[in-house]
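Dig into what follows:

_____
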Amino acid sequence: MLINFFKVAWRSLVRGKGFTLLNIGGLAVGMASAMLILIWVRNEVSYDRDYANSDRLYQAWNRSDANHGVIKCWNITPAPLGEALKENYPEVEKASRLGWDESLLFTVGDKGDKRINITGAAADTDFLPMFGFPVVEGDAQTALRDPNSIVLTQKAARSLFGKEDAMGKTVRIDYKYEFKVSAVIKDLPNNTQFDFEYLLPWKYLVWTNQTDSNWDQNSTHSYVLLKPHADIATLNAKIKGIYRQHIKDINVNELFLYPVSRLRLYSNFENGIPTGGKIETVRVFILIAVFILLIACINFMNMSTARSEKRAKEVGIRKVSGALRGSLIGQFLGESILLAAIAGAVALLLVQLSLPSFNLLTKKELIVGYGDPVFWFAFAAFVLFTGIVAGSYPAFFLSAFRPVSVLKGQFKKAHALELRRGLLRHVPSSFGTFVALGSPRKVLVIAQFTFAIILVICTLIIGQQVRYAQARETGYDKDNVVWTYLAGDVKTKYDLIRNELLEKGIALSVTKSSGPLTATWDNGGADWEGKDPNDRTTFNFFNEDGGIVKTAGLQLVLGRDIDTKSYPTDSTAVVLNEAAVKAMGFKDPIGKIIDRGHWGAADWHIIGVVKDFILESPYERVKPIVIQGPKANWFNLMHIKLNSARPTERNLADMEAIFKTDNPRYPFDYHFIDQEYAKKFDDEQVTQTLTALFAGLTIFISCLGLFGLAAYMAENRIKEIGVRKVLGASALSITALLSGDFVRLVVAAILVASPVAWWSMSKWLEGYPYHTAISWQVFILAGAGAVLIALVTVSFQAIRAALGNPVKSLRAE
């Protein structure tokens, strides 16, 4: 019985080779697209969930009523917090700080023959056992206990020692500090927030003056591991006011713990409440995967029901022979599942071939889990689901034929009559009736193109938003500005290097700073004259030694830039941006005093105001910025404004020669500001590219189905076309007649898709404080493109039918 079942199914597929290939092609592309999306989705939803204790891991966050009712949350906390939580709250089992990622120069060998820059961070002893990173060699419990120990990933160990065993070997960092390898851990997976290749003890940051013990300074990330059965709500209530125990100010931040497993997808807060984050993008792509798969299934449904005449007599004979409707449904569903299995195999091949390019596009290292039994179970369920969905409507449709009508030939007549009636619904006044009275096949075609047009409109609006943000005034000149770390001897020879760059005409201006112009490395509060006691405004702080206005091309509104050579008191001077002046409420800010306490000077005097410039996200409002003078004494890099009169390649070559002479032990590494700024658009551009890719595939799949339906329509109406030609109809009028039905369906899809796309993208844009307005041209472009693509798809078959010889089609009449 089962063998006969497969024989019948296989013969049916082979009998209509063209339609079978179209069905397999459409299903395969749809299934491959959905599989790629679901592999990406699985990676996203698994972020930070595979740690040994992921359900008990939390990150410390601050909550503050910063601007009179607007509650803000952020995850940078004071350095002493972690230890205080561990010592004073019995619910906390372990706690650890994690420093900022830092690229350091590693050397190995007596003569330092091998020199490699490796990126990593510093952490407390508890960090490794808290997260349970797999240890290849060493003991996670004690790996960071010795202040002279270091933990390496397998990749870092191979880079430094090749095939030799790294355990116990010594590495030198920045030619100053020696550390002994105490553990080697597996390379980090691609679904973790962390990106380090080494871990140093926290003591290293103390030695290099990169940490502090101030409770009123947010400077690091803090993580805790709760004890089993600890109640997070109760603990959050206890720690809420911890800052008041250490800061003599009633107006301080509140603390709360947030699950590490939710950081990736639910990191957006509004008024102190988590409102989502990347989960919105994940949900959108899940919908896209569902849409693409449904479109592929709709293709199968349409072409199967369109060819119903071919199977009508078979159904009639089977019913006369005693076959029940249930067995027929099973037969047709079996055929669709068999076809889905073949398409699934092709889809798996397509996924494997396209995965490298997909990884480049998404900047991930996704893999297909062939060795995981769960994957094969999920794949089998996926194929079965696709086969059932695709075959359900055709199975019930075909099995419902009445054997008496079919075997008398009345089915064909009735079907032809319905087609002729469809031709009468062409006048504009009956357009609504055309859609309403159309067959389910027409409704399915409308659904296909509705999904496709929605994706096209979304792609265009995302691109519009990216371009809108890219065109936003940055507030500074990005061109020909580079920055490089103050590594090795650059700190002590900074003045010498600066002078050489200026004297040789390589640079127009050089400024030492705490961080790059494209990121915030320091923020906190401040006091000033007339400050509201309830004001908790957080400021971004940026340190410079003078000349940043010239180097970065900032635009002065009031006063001047910091210049300690001409004005020695400028060591404690600050320059504010307009947002900071507004936050402080100054009408005439020049000469006013602000206080940051522990940052090297109690009083900082304001000497200038610059226009707002984008230090963080180009999609957000510009935050208050305070540019501090050299008394802050925390500098990490230098900005260099290159001389545009000289070729950039020559400037870089001459600059490299200077650095190699004055800092020979360190490789010369530099970053262009315009390139760093462009990275701020990466996420949205990836989303746009993925949406465009899958929109294109959706249209392709829809057009495959449209092509098949057009071919069948032309075959089914060949005699009608012959009669029309004999009666004098031109090839153009016949082509227009045959194409008109499909164009009307696409127009109906446009009318349905446009408001849906407008609503969904309006909601998406609300997540960006700085966003574009949706223009009507987007809908015109998407609609016109859809109509044009549909016309091109069906016109081949329509023209072919219109140019056919009527003698051949009417020979048997």
